[in-house]
From TrEMBL:
Gene3D superfamilies: 1.10.1410.10, Beta Polymerase, domain 2. It holds the Pfam family MTPAP-like_central. This is Poly(A) RNA polymerase mitochondrial-like central palm domain-containing protein. Residues 368-387 are annotated as: Disordered. SUPFAM superfamilies: Nucleotidyltransferase, PAP/OAS1 substrate-binding domain. GO terms for biological process: RNA 3'-end processing. GO terms for molecular function: RNA uridylyltransferase activity.
Amino acid sequence: MEFIRLTRAEVENLQLLFDHLHDALQSVWPGCQVHAFGSIVTGLGIKSSDVDCFIRLPVWLQNPGDTYVAQAKAALMQYPRIFTELFAIKGAKVPIVKFYHVPTQRHCDISFKSPTGVENSKLLAYLLNLDNRVLPLAILIKYWAKVHKLTGTNLMPNYALTLLIIFYLQHKAILPPISLLQRNVEHIVDNWNVAFEDVMHVSGNNESLYELLGGFFKYYRDFKYDVFLVCPFLGLPIKRDLFAKGGNVPSEFELYKTNLKRRNCLPLRTNSLICIQDPFDHSRNCSVAMYPRLVNKIMSCISQSAEIYENKKSEIFLWEILSMAIEESPAVSKKRRVRNGVAKFKPNHNIKKAAQTFHKAFMRYKEKERGKNKRNLNNFSHNVTKH
């Protein structure tokens, strides 16, 4: 945890990024505000985490579109020693500007469209700190997913993974359902209630962090994804058919039915292999963009981790799940891919196993020869890579 997590000093140092961003955008939109959200706010930030910011513009401006992204990029380009690698993505569902902040050495994304990311981050931060086991568990699982390249650009969103963790802990009665937190409060943003209150929630669960980590993999290995959707709002699995049919949703989803009737939203898409419903926006499936091959890889990782938990001793469990080779099903791992007219094949498990063995041999050699000439070590590393 100490090795992978952002330190307090590193988080506090990000204030410099926010100040620079605020000062640069003031020249275009006087009175604008910079609101951080995502892992930096929730406490899930690790060493490689990017920074996400929502820019709240003055109220007299219309809903921002592509123009605001282009203007923001132009404003940041005036400070080349502070902001580099600027790239505007105008055609995305949520247009953003990506850049690298030189003083803090952090990548950052800024958006203008909706403050819901800020509100979601407040909720996650509250839930992750309700029990002293929740945040460490979430960071370990997030790191596990990153090591195996399950999360990131065009992969599983970290937000969706965090919702899986929260839902699992609701199943364990360690965290309360979101509906309980919203019972007496309401604050509508973009047609959805984003308010929540602190409630008295006492958990009788005394499982250790090790048991909860292993239990997470077992729970989602056995979860019936084809029948149920993940619903953090109720903290219970909900049958997909209820939302597919539209009018038969549980009574707790009155706001969802109202928004559908008023055409403020589209029906929840339940045709993805995994369906994770947003706790605030009940029409949003947070895993809808996860393509079948990625889902297969995620399920393989979860199943292998669950098997390791059931068969290994506790003192080597974490090492095993972080260093395991991913064994995808033959139907996917041997599937032929054609890209730009060139057929490619994914290396089979025997090749990956041989590469892993070779890597372990090199690491043993590196440890043994640590005190010797660095040039010789680099030459050996180059030869290993070449072979």
